[in-house]
Design brief:
FAD/NAD(P)-binding domain; 16 strands; alpha/beta; 3 domains; five-stranded parallel beta sheet
């Protein structure tokens, strides 16, 4: 097939639930490609010798390789190619911002001068993961080394898998009652069905990875105890960015104001939307304001509709062009009925005489000069105040790194934002044998970036553990040769260089 032939194949549109129907159910919005659609979309790949798309993938998936197999209908081969470097294709195919990563560099998108017309790499990946079976990777012979992994989000899952495949004995310690981290407590069912996450966790268990749930490191056990008392050879910290940020405005302590973390955790992990099957307490807001413009804000606003809200406002202080959320998520939120109030921001939350949210005073903004992020800075317009009639406010303006482990671990270096400082090549922290990765290092980032961190840390752990083993073996041999009665007794154990 010539390049011209490939360019003439139209991009395959993903089938979706009707917007009005899906806004009131928790079923997955995107229905996925058919086999024929996946083959046609994969056939659009130019098979560039330089593979520019791979430079946008944090885990270096062989994208042209798996697309070539998918185009031939060899979906098992395509999935096997993906799994050479990516543990979570069904997850990444759904939630990764491909338009800012692999698809951003796609030659097809550049030729058509539209990133939205790049090859839909993530959608083909999703189809392969959902509909094909790839042989599980075999673990290497057992090394006898024990690795502790703290947290069970994307970085931790990836690190645990790579360490288990290297032959180490891996135990994951998770604070919640279910494994998966942000994949289960943060991302809603309608974007990422939890059965998919469970399947990936089951795959880890099949590799021999053990899980300890309801285990809060820093409270249940101190970090250093894993090495000093429990006999682990290395530890990986992947506890994420779980500390919600607020706006420090009047009225944020009123009943009916939530962080997006709490709001989504109650709905996702604790299934508050299923009142018949779960007893999770939940605030049923009828008129909801969500503050923020990222993917979490989109998730919270769309979840509010599914929890029965009559009206949902999304309030963002910049214009829509500056929103960090995926375009697809913005599009879906609008389709479902979320009203976007851009160039506006909350000034104070208004309460009633019972201490509950009764309204939200907002201020209008205009865009000024670009800030350090490259986005134009929002500038308040004096005297532009107005009031929204709401009974619920969800604050989705970002998260900071979880502070518990750094606060309870002497000698663990963090930066001014509270992120753990690591060696950029190995992800080792300031404590020998302790590694970290994901949002606890990067700040709030994407699933695939966290996976890249977990993979790099696992390589660092493997090298460290085996180097340490070699050192111990060498020391043991030296001590034996200098023991009483040995031929080297009394001799110096080193040579002058």
């Amino acid at each position: 097939m010539t390049a011209k032939d490939r360019m003439e194949i139209p991009p395959q549109t993903m089938p979706e639930q009707d917007a009005k129907t899906r806004a009131r159910n928790m079923n997955e919005v995107a229905l996925g490609y058919t086999a024929e659609m996946a083959k046609r979309e994969a056939s659009r790949c130019m098979q560039c010798p330089t593979k520019p798309c791979m430079q946008g993938c944090p885990v270096a998936v062989n994208i042209p390789g798996f697309l070539a197999k998918a185009a031939e209908g060899d979906f098992e081969g395509a999935l096997a190619t993906i799994r050479e470097t990516s543990l979570l294709p069904a997850v990444c195919g759904r939630v990764c911002p491909q338009e800012k990563q692999c698809q951003k560099f796609c030659t097809m998108g550049k030729l058509l001068k539209d990133v939205d017309k790049a090859v839909a790499i993530g959608r083909v990946e999703r189809f392969c993961a959902d509909n094909a079976v790839a042989p599980a990777a075999n673990a290497l012979p057992r090394t006898g080394k024990r690795i502790a992994v703290i947290g069970s989000g994307p970085a931790s899952i990836t690190c645990a898998a790579d360490c288990a495949r290297a032959g180490h004995d891996v135990t994951v310690f998770e604070a919640f009652h279910k494994a998966g981290g942000v994949l289960v407590y943060g991302i809603p069912e309608f974007r990422l069905p939890k059965a998919i996450v469970k399947k990936e966790i089951d795959g880890l268990k099949a590799l021999g990875v053990k899980f300890e749930m309801n285990y809060v490191v820093g409270r249940t056990r101190r970090l250093r105890d894993f090495i000093d008392k429990d006999g682990f050879d290395a530890v990986f910290i992947g506890t994420g960015a779980g500390l919600p940020k607020f706006m420090d405005i009047e009225g944020e302590n009123l009943v009916g104001v939530f962080s997006a973390n709490e709001y989504l955790t109650r709905a996702n992990l604790m299934k508050a939307y299923d009142e018949a099957g779960h007893d999770t307490p939940f605030w049923h807001g009828r008129r909801v304001a969500v503050l923020g413009g990222g993917n979490v804000a989109m998730d919270a606003s769309r979840m509010a509709l599914r929890l029965g809200a009559d009206k949902v406002y999304l309030i963002y202080r910049r214009s829509e062009a500056e929103m960090p959320a995926r375009k697809e998520e913005v599009h879906h939120a609008k389709e479902e009925g979320v009203e976007f109030l851009v160039l506006q921001n909350a000034k104070r939350v208004i309460g009633d005489d019972q201490g509950r949210v009764a309204g939200l005073e907002c201020l209008k903004y205009e865009l000024g000069e670009p800030d350090a992020s490259g986005r134009r800075s929002p500038v308040a317009i004096p005297g532009s105040e107005f009031t929204l009639d709401v009974d619920t406010v969800v604050v989705a303006v970002g998260n900071a790194s979880n502070p518990l482990i750094p606060a309870t671990t002497e000698g663990l270096e963090v930066n001014k934002r509270g992120n753990i400082v690591v060696d950029p090549e190995t992800n080792m922290t300031s404590i020998p044998g302790v590694f970290a990765g994901g949002d606890i290092v990067l700040g709030a980032a994407t699933v695939i970036l966290a996976m890249g961190e977990g993979r790099r840390a696992a390589a660092g752990i493997n090298a460290y553990a085996m180097r340490r083993a070699a050192t111990i073996e060498s020391d043991t041999a030296t001590n034996a040769s200098n023991a009483p009665g040995s031929r080297n007794e009394g001799k110096c154990s080193f040579q002058r260089s």
